[in-house]
Specification:
- With 175 residues, this protein is mostly beta strands.
- A 5-stranded antiparallel beta sheet has the order 3-6-1-10-9, with no helix packed on it. Strands 2, 4, 5, 7 and 8 form a 5-stranded antiparallel beta sheet that branches.
- The chain is globular, with a radius of gyration of 17 Å.
Length: 175
């Protein structure tokens, strides 16, 4: 079996208007991929940098997969939240990024976005902090299902990963 080891961190965020951010992350794989060790999901701490407005999380990621196929390789789903001036935790944005299968260090810049809906939804978001959220964010991992969503660009989440690949050449994969 081929093995993929993902070691790194959900590092930081940039270009968000809100200063106090946190991030939930989840790895998604298809059939044929199996987790040997590690957590496929986690959440960073809340971080606030009032000077640069770029929160730093440095939240560790350590995950080990085995596989017999390259199809449905790992994807990272990010959900960014903020704390407002009233202490409420509000949803900000989603982001999805494919995990590279080539060995080495990779710095991923995951651009995030949020669903915007109609004009009433936008008013609720602006004045009440009630942004639209998907009932099942895991649908975003399937690229076919997300083309009909109206969105607004948000900030970027930086993820630094070290990829270790083993035995992919035995399956005819030259990475």
């Amino acid at each position: 079996m081929a093995e993929l080891h993902i070691i790194g961190q959900v590092s930081s965020a940039k270009n968000f208007k809100q200063p106090r951010l946190m991030c939930k992350w989840t790895f998604h794989v298809g059939n044929g991929w199996k987790v040997i060790s590690g957590n496929e999901e986690g959440q960073t701490q809340e971080s606030c940098d009032l000077y640069t407005n770029n929160p730093v999380w440095d939240h560790p990621v350590d995950l080990h997969y085995s596989t017999q196929t390259l199809q449905n390789s790992p994807k990272l789903l990010l959900q960014v939240f903020c704390r407002d001036t009233y202490g409420r935790i509000l949803f900000l944005s989603y982001g999805v990024h494919s995990i590279p299968l080539s060995p080495g260090m990779h710095v991923l810049e995951c651009h995030t976005w949020k669903p915007i809906g109609n004009w009433k939804d936008r008013l609720h978001d602006k004045f009440l902090g009630k942004g639209l959220q998907l009932t099942s964010p895991s649908v975003l991992v399937n690229t076919v299902d997300r083309f009909e969503i109206l969105t607004q660009s948000m900030g970027t989440v930086i993820v630094c990963l070290h990829i270790v690949a083993r035995n992919f050449d035995k399956f005819g994969c030259q990475l």
